[in-house]
Amino acid sequence: MEWGTLGAAAVGAFFGIGATLISDVVRFRREREQRWADTKRVAYARFLTALAQAHSRMTLAAASGVTGPARQQAVHDAFLSDPQHSDAKSVLRELGLAAPDDIYQAAVPLYQQLRIVRDLLAEDGTSFESPEYQQVSHPFFADMDRLQRLMRNDLQPPTRRRA
After folding, report:
1. Which of 51, 74, 130, 137 is at a distance of 20 to 30 A from 34, taking alpha carbons?
2. What is the pLDDT of residue 4?
3. How does DSSP classify residue 142?
4. H helices within the chain, ranges in order?
5. Which residues, including other chains, have CB under 8 Å from residue 64's CB and lie 6 or more apart?
6. What is the pTM of this model?
7. Angle 96-101-105 (CA atoms, 0-180°, nearest 5)?
8. CB-CB neighbours of 95 under 10 Å
């Protein structure tokens, strides 16, 4: 065998191994980014769902017709008792681990707004048509929509993100 043939085979093997390594690294990074995006997507969906379901449970408890301490207890129980064991506070902590800081910083006040809604619904005489309820519920839903847009934008590939 000539040295030229052996050298060409060695160079070809070197390029083949190099190309394989590069494609493996690129594939690994892409798969890792996809797993991280999936993790964030699950945390985002769980948080938004936990907030919406807590609000729904609280409104049902407030509309049940009980008054006084029983109403307050019913609304607070509705706030805390998530049948899927994913109450908003625990999912907020999960979000703190998975979400970028700007999204987490937008989620914390939203959770606090839900607590304000809870406290208002726990009071006797609060109706869903009252200006007080409208004053706290409209910003809650508006901020929830804004957070959802931030989350959706974060999950987009970098080339499709909105500024």
Report:
1. 51
2. 74
3. H
4. 3-62, 69-80, 88-98, 101-121, 131-155
5. 71, 74
6. 0.80
7. 80
8. 24
Q: Which amino acid is at 51?
A: L
- Token pair 């970098």 is at which residue? 158
> Distance (Å, rounded) from C-alpha 3 to C-alpha 18?
22
3-state secondary structure 17-29: HHHHHHHHHHHHH
Report the amino acid identity of residue 7. G
pLDDT in tens, the chain (163 residues): 587 777 777 777 777 777 777 776 667 777 778 788 889 999 999 999 999 999 999 999 999 888 899 999 999 999 988 777 668 888 999 999 999 999 999 999 999 999 999 999 999 888 888 899 999 999 999 999 999 999 999 998 776 656 5
Tokens at 5, concatenated = 């043939």
* 89: three-class secondary structure by DSSP: helix
Contact between residue 87 and residue 115 where contact means Cβ atoms under 8 Å apart: no
Phi and psi angles of residue 70, each rounded to the nearest 5 degrees, phi first: -65, -40
Amino acid identity of residue 150, one-letter, is L
